[in-house]
């Protein structure tokens, strides 16, 4: 049985609040301070809070409202749009969707969209989203938020490039048609978290470029520090948490850290979070882009990699043989 070690409080220097206003506004004034802070955060814990992010609070609040209404629906109604009905990992994920394993289950339900793309044999993740009939405002809220969060994702790219001493448009071609996954997460309160059998989401790193995470005011997100301690990353109003994913760690030759994190909701109330997983173009070959590349490194295709990951973890309608 896995024992959950005690977490400790965050020291503010471990996950700094970075003012990304200059990146969002495309403004030269103040950009140096932003880029310096970004560079430090990415190479230290790979986690930061960002403020002045440009996502309208009304757009976010509307999605948060619709998100709670959706997860409140009866399970049978939610399963009408379950990912098990999609070949493309779109739709609802029921609680404990990873199934029972000896390591335990994730106490999380979810809802996933990507961009709607024409089905293509060259990109097996392209396809249509599934939409529930209820709540009626759900689809519009999701798409409005998706557009606003995608803008923020693109505003971050020059920041990462400048933080690496590269040209500001360095990442643009890699993210010209990005495989963005927008996910709603619902973490019900956990009855007995200390036995280690149930966790909101177990320790993992994110697989793509980076993640833009909105979390509500409940708390429960923790990161695994360089010293091996789990550290709380508590909510700060009007900020996002941005964390580096595995592919950004590869591109930067480990300069930027893809740090393990997990969620335990011990607070007795529902917790909601909304990650946008910022994954590069399907056909991007992932390999180190700065510094020396080890001759042993085998480049891999971003989309194929994600396809394999999602097939492992999400229920899916098996594609018909061609
Ligand atoms: C994730 C994740 C954190 C959260 O979905 O990959 O780490 O706060 N979520 O929900
Ligand atoms: Ni994660």
Structural commentary:
This protein has 322 residues and is an alpha+beta fold. The chain has one domain: B-lactam Antibiotic, Isopenicillin N Synthase, Chain (Jelly Rolls, Sandwich). The protein has seven helices and 16 strands. It has an eight-stranded mixed beta sheet. Strands 8-13-10-11 form a four-stranded antiparallel beta sheet, with no helix packed on it. A hairpin with a 5-residue loop joins strand 10 and strand 11. Helix 2 crosses helix 5 and helix 3 packs across helix 5. It is globular, with a radius of gyration of 19 Å. The relative contact order is 0.19. The model has no long low-confidence stretch (mean pLDDT 92). The site of nickel (II) ion (NI) has 3 residues, from loops.
Q: What's the topology here?
A:
Blueprint lengths: L16 E3 L1 H5 L5 H14 L2 E5 L5 H15 L3 H5 L11 E3 L11 E2 L2 E5 L24 H26 L17 E7 L10 E2 L1 E4 L5 E6 L5 E4 L5 E3 L7 E5 L1 H6 L9 E3 L7 E8 L6 E2 L13 E2 H12 L9
Parallel strand pairs: 1-2, 4-7
Antiparallel strand pairs: 2-12, 3-5, 5-6, 6-14, 8-13, 9-12, 9-14, 10-11, 10-13, 15-16
Bound molecules: N-oxalylglycine and nickel (II) ion.
Largest sheet: 8 strands, mixed
Cofactors and ligands: N-oxalylglycine, nickel (II) ion
Strand content: 15-25%
State the strand order across the main sheet: 1-2-12-9-14-6-5-3
Overall number of strands: 16
By helix and strand content, what is the structural category?
alpha+beta
CATH superfamily annotation: B-lactam Antibiotic, Isopenicillin N Synthase, Chain
- Overall structural domain count: 1
Number of helices: 7
Radius of gyration using CA atoms only:
19 Å
Q: Per CATH, what is the topology?
A: Jelly Rolls
Helical percent range?
A: 25-40%
CATH class: Mainly Beta
Spatial separation of the terminal alpha carbons: 43 Å
- Helix/strand order: EHHEHHEEEHEEEEEEEHEEEEH
Unreliable spans: none
> So what's the overall shape?
globular
Q: Can you give the mean pLDDT?
A: 92
**What is the CATH architecture annotation?**
Sandwich
């Amino acid at each position: 049985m896995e024992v959950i070690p005690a977490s400790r409080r965050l020291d503010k220097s471990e996950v700094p609040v970075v003012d990304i206003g200059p990146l969002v506004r495309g403004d030269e004034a103040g950009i140096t301070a932003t880029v310096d802070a970004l560079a430090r955060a990415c190479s230290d814990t790979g986690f930061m809070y960002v403020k002045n992010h440009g996502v309208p609070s009304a757009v976010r609040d509307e999605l948060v409202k619709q998100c709670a209404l959706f997860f409140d629906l009866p399970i049978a109604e939610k399963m009408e749009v379950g990912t098990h009905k999609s070949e493309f990992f779109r739709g609802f994920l029921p609680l404990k969707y990873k199934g029972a394993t000896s390591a335990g289950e994730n106490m999380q339900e979810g809802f996933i969209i990507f961009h709607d793309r024409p089905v293509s044999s060259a990109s097996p993740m392209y396809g249509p989203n599934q939409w529930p009939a209820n709540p009626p405002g759900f689809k519009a809220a999701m798409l409005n938020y998706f557009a606003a969060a995608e803008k923020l994702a693109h505003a971050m790219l020059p920041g990462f490039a400048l933080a690496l001493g590269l040209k500001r448009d360095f990442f643009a071609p890699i993210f010209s048609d990005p495989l963005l996954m927008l996910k709603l997460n619902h973490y019900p309160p956990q009855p007995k978290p200390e036995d280690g059998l149930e966790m909101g989401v177990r320790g993992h790193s994110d697989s793509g470029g980076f993640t833009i995470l909105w979390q509500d005011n409940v708390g429960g997100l923790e990161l695994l520090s360089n010293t091996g301690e789990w550290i709380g990353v508590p909510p700060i109003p009007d900020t996002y948490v941005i964390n580096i994913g595995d592919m950004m760690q590869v591109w930067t030759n480990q300069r930027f850290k893809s740090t393990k994190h997990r969620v335990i909701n011990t607070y007795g109330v529902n917790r909601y979070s909304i990650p946008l997983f910022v994954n590069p173009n399907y056909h991007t070959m992932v390999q180190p882009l700065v510094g020396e590349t080890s001759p042993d490194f085998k480049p891999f295709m971003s989309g194929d990699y994600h396809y394999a990951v999602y097939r492992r973890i999400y229920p899916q309608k098996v594609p018909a043989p061609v």
